[in-house]
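To whoever is covering the structure queue this week,

Two jobs came back overnight. Logging them here so there's a record in the thread.

Job A:
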Amino acid sequence: MNIKRLILEGEGVQLDFKKTITHLHKIAKTMVAFANNKGGKLLIGVLDDGSIKGVKSEDEEKYMLTQAATHYCNPPLEPVFTEYTVDGVIVLVAEIAESDTKPHYALGEDDKWWVYIRVKDKSVLASKIVIDVLRKETRG
């Protein structure tokens, strides 16, 4: 995988940049949105403008992502991690596969479970109609 080429494509339906993981609620929202769509990649250590900063501790980032995937996503998700060295720094890629048990819910800061989908480069709250469609896709 060519990380620089991926970054040049910019954030989108299947790609999101994060400088670092700080809020488990927020990252769970993105992971759930990927799982409810066609899957996606989180590039950790990359700023929104595409500049590569790298991660301080890939183990800490993996821990945060795993915590979010396990405790803030329902049903839980299993990100697949790959580390890349780009310009002397480490970029952590967390891949979220498209789920076959949709819809997935993310725990919000209000302690309620919400369904998110990906629209362009944003994770947005799914409407009741969209949730029904996701359920039908799963039963398919």
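Job B:
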Amino acid sequence: GLGAWEVATRYDRLDLNDGNFRGGTLDNFTVGVSWYLNPNTRFMLDWVHAMQSTVSVWMNGIEMRFQVDF
């Protein structure tokens, strides 16, 4: 057939504070889609939005991966 599709979301938070170092937090939100062409082949595409709390810096990124399992 045409394979299988998978849609996924993820949220995570990283605490960057340690002792006297105040780095704030880093929040990531990811939305992704995967296409399984067959049981051994997968294409993945993710969009990531990240924001660092202390200096209010944000980033958007696109990630792509092709995986073959043999």
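Note for Job B: The chain is about 0% helix and 70% strand.

Please reply-all if you pick these up so we don't duplicate work.
Q.
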